[in-house]
UniProtKB/TrEMBL annotation:
Pfam families xrefs: GerE (PF00196), Response_reg (PF00072)
Top-level division of the source organism's lineage: Bacteria
Protein name as annotated: Response regulator transcription factor
Residue intervals of the Response regulatory domain: 3-121
Keywords assigned by UniProt, alphabetized: DNA-binding, Phosphoprotein, Transcription, Transcription regulation
InterPro entries the record matches: CheY-like_superfamily (IPR011006), NreC/VraR/RcsB-like_REC (IPR058245), Sig_transdc_resp-reg_C-effctor (IPR016032), Sig_transdc_resp-reg_receiver (IPR001789), Tscrpt_reg_LuxR_C (IPR000792), WalR-like (IPR039420)
Modified residues (4-aspartylphosphate): 54
Record domain HTH luxR-type: where: 149-214
Length: 220
């Protein structure tokens, strides 16, 4: 069973999400939080597989709560799926930079929400084309961070850089395998090694690294 923690300041929405999750065959609600601070505390205590995280909450907002959860080395297995009614660039960028594995609007159809939970629980990231375009737009207008970017790729082989570049361009593992004439298993091995070498959580973070390091630029 996929264990889900629901964090939203509206009790009615929490209840609706709980009914949806608990009526699935492979997911269960293990906790509910009404504030970001409570979400952080519960995540540390019960260690869910996925946190459904609202953005606008009192006390600590969802972005800061996501950052705290993802920065905790004891919570490496916890994935955060951001849910919000606000389709704004700053939230998308902030959530992914904080370590979120996905971003969905609250008007997402129930079936798509459940698919999103399963995707991030499986260790993948949930980046729809619209979210990817928004993320790219953010990188286009933001200055690069003031840190030694080239050193991020120390120890990454040329083949792994090729794979990382294609991840940044939005290709799936199967598409990368076809593009580089590799087996799917080999591509998965490369992706796993890149994640380990760069010390990032999932594919969403690899997209960010690909842009920050200049492997991918807007328009390529």
């Amino acid at each position: 069973m996929i264990r889900v923690l629901i964090a939203d300041d509206q009790a009615l929405l929490r209840g609706s999400f709980k009914v949806l999750v608990d009526h699935s065959d492979d997911c269960e609600t293990v906790g509910e939080a009404g504030t970001g601070a409570e979400a952080v505390r519960l995540a540390a205590r019960i260690r869910p597989d996925v946190v459904l995280m609202d953005v606008r909450m009192p006390d600590v907002d969802g972005i800061d709560a996501t950052r705290q959860i993802c920065a905790d080395p004891d919570l490496q297995g916890v994935r955060v799926l951001i849910l919000t009614t606000f389709d704004l660039d700053e939230y998308v960028y902030g959530a992914l930079r904080a370590g979120a594995s996905g971003f969905l609007l609250k008007d997402t159809p129930p079936a798509e929400l459940m698919r999103g939970i399963r995707v991030v629980a499986d260790g993948a990231s949930l980046l729809s084309p619209s979210v990817t375009r928004r993320l790219i737009s953010e990188f286009a207008r933001r200055p690069r961070p003031d840190r030694p970017i080239p050193r991020l790729l120390d120890g990454v082989t040329d083949r792994e850089r090729e794979v990382l570049t294609l991840i940044g361009r939005g290709l799936s593992n199967a598409e990368i395998a076809g593009h580089l004439s590799l087996s799917l298993a080999t591509v998965k091995t490369h992706v796993g090694r890149i994640l380990a070498k760069l010390d990032v959580r999932d594919r969403a973070q690899l997209v960010i690294v690909a842009y920050e390091t200049g492997l991918v630029t807007v328009g390529t």
